[in-house]
Amino acid sequence: MEVKYYKDLRHNFLIIRTLDEPVNGYQFRMITNNKIGGLLPCKERHINGELFLYYEITSKQSLLSLYENRRINMEFLSRLFVQLKTTWDNMSRFLLEEQYLVLNPKYIYTDIESGELLFLYYPFMSEENYIKQLFAFLTEKVDSEDDVAVDICYKALDLIERDQFVLDEVLNWFEQEYCFCHKKENELKPIENLENENGEKKMFEEERDYATDRFFFRAINEKFLGKVIILLGTILAVCIYIYQNYELAETNLICLYAVFLADIFFMAFIVGHFVFQKIRSTIGKRKNLYVEEEKWYEKKVIDLDDMSEENKENNLYGNTVFIPWTENSENKLYGVGKKNKNHIDLSRLPVTVGKLAGMVDMVIDDTSISRRHAKFHKENGQIYMTDLNSTNGTFKNGLRLEPNTSEVLEQGDEIRLGKLKFIYR
To answer: HSE on the CB side for 384, CA within 13 Å?
Structure first.
């Protein structure tokens, strides 16, 4: 496929130019004249006598981009194949053929906010290994610590390579395997029955924490936290009103005090629990970063210890080594203007920037910045900037980058992300 990207005032498109293909085919008319659930919206355009298919990808990210530096867990695998199965069923109702569904991770898009996955349907090219390339990507990116996900990916890839399943059979097999493994994984063993190698009973803190967290988060979900606080506040206000406006017997007054204190305690407990979870999560992330830096430092020390005596002597007494400006530069994007206090460090690449925490390496809280706005990576000794299908665009020296295209950064370049300006040094 000859794929290009284009952005107009409000929309981003993935464009495919068809090469002398029949435009009156059934598959072609179905996808251009209907909105089919699970497929990228598609429209035809005729330009200079040539036919182009415009797939809208506004505010969406490809799996290849989204999981470039992240790992895939069982939760995502479940969502991917449930939506793939749903899309496959929708295609069957329109009599669309499975071999035209492009399952290359580069062309599978997801809405980061809603989690919806959309697939590209191209009726002019059949991919023989359409499912194999998807599982090859999943196997490469799967989280090695998620044993269930790893087992399913490798089993599926092995069966596909032996040509034992078609797409529908693979999906049904995955669904059965997932339901069994998920049930088995979620069944917590009684703590008192667990024993170590010496036959002694052992208390697993991780299982206890998991059971405790599961209980609290099931009872008090963040989504309903506001409603719970409002309810407790209402009860508190009613208690105060009754106390101030009614004369109560001693027994009733004791009951009122008990309700009042219980309400205060429960409200403080809920708020304190969630604050504690947030603090623990933040400390954990910082601890992981510190451990990575410590390992890097230890590696450098070991490398120095492994050097020969001659190399150590030369190193200690100062052999001159040529350092290009790219190695000696600050490798930072400095914010320009009073309202832009953000600095983007490019010394550790790749780095993605945007405003959606958890999906990017650096969060920039600004309304003009997309959830995943731009990516910076290093290739052949040069730093590249890539627009990640952003709404308000990524600019280099006043020129706007096309969606999903890259440009080399050079010292002194003026970079604009949305309405925020930066200088590269």
So the answer is: 13
